[in-house]
Amino acid sequence: MTDPVLDIRGVTKEFPRHGALPLRAVDNASLRVEVGKCVALVGESGSGKSTLARIALQLIKPDAGDVLLDGTSLSALSPSALRVARLAMQPVFQDPAAAFNPRRTVRAILRQALAQVPGAEISDEKLASLLERVELRPGADYLDRYPHQLSGGQRQRLALGRAIATQPKVIIADEPLSGADVSIRAQLLNLMTALQRESGVAYLLVTHDMLVARAFSDRVSVMYRGRILEEAPTACVLGAPRHDYTRALLSAVQSLSSLSDVSMTM
Amino acid sequence: MSTASVPILDVRDLDIVYDGRGRRVHAIQDASLSVKAGEAVGLAGESGSGKSTLARAALGLLPPGESQITGGTLAIAGTDVTHYTPRQWERVRGRPLAIVFQDPLSFLNPVMRVSTQIGESVRRHDPAADVESRCAELLALVKLDANVARRYPHELSGGMRQRVMLAIAIGCRPRLLIADEPTTALDATTQSEILALLRSLRTTLDMSFLVISHDLGLLRWNCDRIYVMYAGHTIEHGRTEDVLERPAHPYTRGLVEASRMRRLPDARFATIGGDVPDLRERYRWCPFFTRCTSAFEMCRSEMPPTYAAPGTNHAARCWLLRPQEAAA
Questions:
Q1: Is A115 left (phi over 0), alpha (psi -120 to 50) or beta?
Q2: What is the pLDDT of residue A35?
Q3: Per the CB < 8 Å rule, is A248 touching B245?
Q4: pLDDT tens sequence across B125-168
Q5: Residues of chain A positioned with their CB less than 8 A from the CB of B103
Q6: Which of B194, B271, B288 is the mutation pick for testing A, counting most A CBs within 10 A?
Q7: A248, closest residue in chain B (CA to CA)
Q8: Which one of A183, A197, A206, A265 makes the best mutation probe of the B interface by having the most chain B beta carbons within 10 Å?
Q9: Residue B1 has pLDDT above 50, yes or no
Q10: Confidence (pTM)
Q11: Which of A28, A173, B79, B174 could form a disulfide with A92 if both were Cys (CB 3.0 to 4.6 A apart)?
């Protein structure tokens, strides 16, 4: 087993509730993403998967547990050291329209991302080449556009372009394909595969869609009520689920989203 | 003519134009579709294909002033409603047609109890109805607890809200229920519950369904027939198995492949290349021409008519299906 690039260890997070016991959104959850691999974190709304992703991104501070990025514990870092360490871990969110400042051009959005990297070269050529890596070609044509002037698929490409600007080791993507049409979904998966191959970036892919998990991930973690119920290579989880909840999730997917020759077995 | 043989919804060669903010968009171009009594019909397509516009047109819900039917006809239960006024539409809506939308929260009134909202729908079409007992009956039909009647929409889960929407929609006993992406916003397990409910309602209430979705898998399990839309055109239709297992139009074939989300031998996922069509154009040729790998000269000069495809009542608008003798 190689070293994990992202190592979430026994993380717990409770949210206070008015007039009720606190809600334990994440309960002693652990998860490892190895270098260059993809782990799918699956579960239904309210299972805690987005909270866990936000804890990994250090957007939410956990009550207990720790997150290690490339072997370094993030909880022990000073704010300035955390800022540098975090460059190795970039988010991509579900709604790319909400992920960008609508008053900034594509140029300004990417400049801001690159400006975080110490000593990074920031030129229009560099920005255009970044756009071309995410298949927005010719890149220079997109620099003066605003997010609303891009299609949904193009915005998600821009989100990936911004994510790879800091040369991250892991991208944490929360439902990145949920709003996309089927043909766009496949294009984005191809792009994510290409980026993985080029740069060796790993993915933590948060999704409620078992078909996406099956298509793209090496391993699957199933989350239910804040806990990780089951964690195994994708083929094992989908082919021989060990937990009743996983079985229920799979049979629901099978009964709705499978086309004739699609069975969940790999 | 007996009512059984007249389609509940019959759309023929329909053209709809949106005219807003200086942009003229041909959202529906020469689209045809029919739903007969007792049928469950699926309408598949990607964003911008026109499927929701077609559904709204069928209910007279197009934004007035900004949209216009510029060609073709729209008939409901044999009555031509193509140029109905909003007042005329008021009498049609609900009965015989009703619709449920993707996002129930934005269509339910947040400050009214569930019982009041169901009651409104019931009373509107039957002023003499015993609202309370009818409301209880409807909640039971959509498999909700009777005490949901006293609750407000925000107190309900997404799946429960969609059930309330269904109760409101069937409250006026429609002959055709249009469901526009009815489960897109829901979790997989809730989705399958709602779909099972739709299937059971279809048999208990003797309704027809028009289910609109981008998800071919969902349509596969819930529809007898499917129409596929692309760039405002209905480019293929037929029995569900025929369309999904023997897609005749190259676009449908691409859509089916992309939906499978399986890696090809070169480890890539099948996609449909090229850009989405520009609906400022009123296509007089095949709108899929620029993206089609089988396209030839004829495809860019003329829109093909509807040709028969393998299977029962399966047809598609593609020159590749032109019978050989006609080509000679």
A1: alpha
A2: 95
A3: no
A4: 788 889 999 999 999 999 999 999 999 999 998 889 999 999 99
A5: none
A6: B271
A7: B189
A8: A183
A9: no
A10: 0.87
A11: A173
Q: Find which of B52, B220, B245, B260 to mutate to test the A interface (most A CBs within 10 Å of its CB).
A: B260
Q: Which domain holds residue B245?
A: 233-327
In chain A, where the domains are located: 4-99+168-257
Q: Please indicate, yes or no, if residue B316 is contained in any of the structural domains.
A: yes
What is the model's pLDDT at position B327?
A: 52
Instruction: Point out which residues pair with B15 in neighbouring strands.
Output: B71
Contacts of B214 in chain A (CB under 8 A): 181-182
Whether the CB-CB separation of B43 and B51 falls below 8 Å is answered with: yes
Contacts of A154 in chain B (CB under 8 A): none
The reported pLDDT for the residue numbered A260 is 39
Question: CB–CB of B73/B13 below 8 Å?
Answer: yes
pLDDT in the model for residue A170: 97
Q: Which residue has the tokens 């964690």?
A: A231
Q: What is the DSSP letter of A57?
A: T
What residues contact B46, with CB distance under 8 A and at least 6 apart? Answer: A181, A182, A183, A184, B214, B230, B255, B276
Position A262 scores a pLDDT of: 40
pLDDT(B316) > 60: yes
Q: Which helix (H) or strand (E) holds B137?
A: helix B131-141
Res. B286: pLDDT tops 90: yes
The tokens of A157 are what? 């490409």
Other C-beta atoms closer than 10 Å to the C-beta of B304 total 18
CA distance A238 to A247: 9
> From residue B30, how far is each of B7, B33, B59, B231, B244 by CA, in Å?
19, 10, 18, 10, 23
Round the average pLDDT of chain B to a whole number and report it: 90
Q: How far is CA B156 from CA B63, B159, B184, B192, in A?
A: 30, 8, 17, 18
ipTM of the complex: 0.80
Report angle CA A177, B271, A148 to the nearest 5 degrees.
50
| pLDDT tens for each residue of B63-82 | 888 899 999 999 999 999 99
Domains held by chain B: number: 1
Question: Which residues of chain B have a CB within 8 Å of the CB of A151?
Answer: 276
How far apart (Å, rounded) are the C-alpha atoms in residues A196 and A203? Answer: 8
Query: What pLDDT sits at residue A264?
Result: 36
The reply to whether A187 touches chain B by the CB within 8 Å rule is yes
Sign of dihedral through CA atoms B121, B127, B131, B134?
A: negative
Q: What is the pLDDT of residue B12?
A: 97
In a domain, B182, yes or no: no
Q: Contact at 8 Å (CB) between B31 and B233? A: yes
> B90: distance to nearest CA of chain A, Å?
33
The superfamily CATH assigns to domain A4-99+168-257 is P-loop containing nucleotide triphosphate hydrolases (3.40.50.300)
Average pLDDT over residues B275-302: 93
A265 — contact with chain B (CB < 8 Å)? no
H/E element, A4: strand A4-17
Residues of chain A with pLDDT under 70: 1, 254-266
Rounded mean pLDDT, B171-194: 85
Residue B186 and residue B172: Cα distance in Å, rounded? 25
